[in-house]
Amino acid sequence: MSDRGVSDSGKSSFVTAQDGLRLHVCEYGSRTASVLPAVCLPGLARTVADFEVLAPALSAHAQRNRRVVAIDSRGRGRSEYDSNPENYNLAVELADVVTVLTALGIGPAVFIGSSRGGILAMLLGVAHPTAIAGVVLHDIGPVIEPKGLARIKSYVGKLPQPRSFDEGGEILRRLFAPQFPNLMPSNGWPPRTAPGGRA
What we know:
The chain is of the alpha/beta class and about 200 residues long. Helix content is about 25%, strand content about 15%. A 6-stranded mixed β-sheet has the order 1-2-4-3-5-6.
């Protein structure tokens, strides 16, 4: 890790959004790579740090250098905070993605969208279909149940600050126990092996 908070092989830069906000981008690989670039879009409360293992691996895969770009959405990671809460919406964030793609000269690319990043990738496919050569969706699908959205709204930005890794694990275990009833306390990792050798 470097003092920038991203992998040493990633290069940080900033792109100015249409409204003047500075958006953080982390790039891996060569801008002149001959294979399709990959664009990583993190989830709602996530950052480019989620891709600091995947992005370098993708950029060097199969002895061919690939350009990989990860984007911090406005107000997250190292992107500037937008003081107008109305601007934290999918239309503005989609425009931010398009601005970054244009500024960096990225044509068709493979998109890796996690959660809200996956929603942005799907919206990009509708608004700019030629921008997408392929897509990997993680933790999101074409249907979002209102009950799931209400659950997310109930905790995003409201969780207590854990004092330790174990306490953080315990907070998340309690929060997600109804959806994942087999989660163990944080000291239960790795899981015990069940009869037959399966965890």
